[in-house]
Specification:
single chain; alpha/beta; seven-stranded mixed beta sheet; binds glutamine
Length: about 220
């Protein structure tokens, strides 16, 4: 039953209060962790693998993993085109790590034959921290979400160009601790995309604020 007592979220769809149905693209990568956080916040989740799984969703999560594999599977399952269409029609998206790569318009370093959904007007550099700094954790401020949000970076991409419609919501701190480093969080319309994995931490503010926003639509 929606809302949960913890978050006081009220979801109305004209037929009363119901839990939002959140799709999580479940072809490869870290979809189970997103499902766990979303369910703990009172959402109903659905693993999305095929076009029919998109029916009636209130939002969709594109998880981390390996973007080249997710791209191939999305195309071979016939999911890429209907997903692109649903998001263009306004289906809200939360994309994390490889998910950011998958929604981006342009990649600096696409793998051979790698395609993207081309929905978010940014350029992305994959594996931006190189093999020296494969994975790390930190705390970030994210506009509209909060401060000192724990963030896990795993072979993470960064955003190197943002189009005019794109709002930067998070950057890595520079050496002085100011948030003026690489762009790691962006929004454009109903798409929120992050370089890191908020679902790998015990802080659920990213998912909870995202669900709040869906309920306000
Ligand atoms: N480097 C991966 C890619 O390009 C993303 C890694 C991740 O999602 N943790 O897809």
């Amino acid at each position: 039953m929606w809302p949960t007592s913890r978050h006081h979220i009220v979801w109305r769809n004209g037929a009363g209060e119901v839990a939002p149905i959140i799709g999580v693209v479940a072809l490869q990568g870290g979809f189970a962790e997103h499902i766990e956080v979303l369910e703990s916040l009172g959402a109903t989740t659905r693993r999305v693998r095929r076009e029919a799984d998109l029916d009636g969703l209130d939002g969709i999560v594109l998880p981390g993993g390996e973007s080249t594999v997710i791209d191939k599977l999305m195309r071979s399952f016939g999911l890429a085109d209907p997903l692109r269409e649903a998001v263009s029609d306004g289906l809200p998206v939360l994309a994390t790590c490889a998910g950011l790569v998958v929604v981006a318009k342009e990649l600096e370093d696409a793998a051979k034959d790698q395609q993207t959904l081309g929905l978010l007007d940014v350029t992305v550099r994959r594996n931006a921290f190189g093999s020296q700094l494969d994975s790390f954790e930190g705390q970030l401020d994210i506009d509209g979400v909060g401060e000192k949000i724990p963030a896990t970076f795993i072979r993470a991409p960064i955003v190197t160009r943002t189009g005019p419609e794109v709002k930067i919501i998070s950057r890595l701190p520079d050496e002085a601790g100011e948030a003026s480093g690489a762009i790691v969080g962006v929004r454009q319309g109903t798409i929120t995309a992050l370089s890191f994995h908020p679902e790998e931490t015990s802080d659920d503010r990213v998912h909870s604020r995202w669900l709040d926003e869906l309920s306000a639509v």
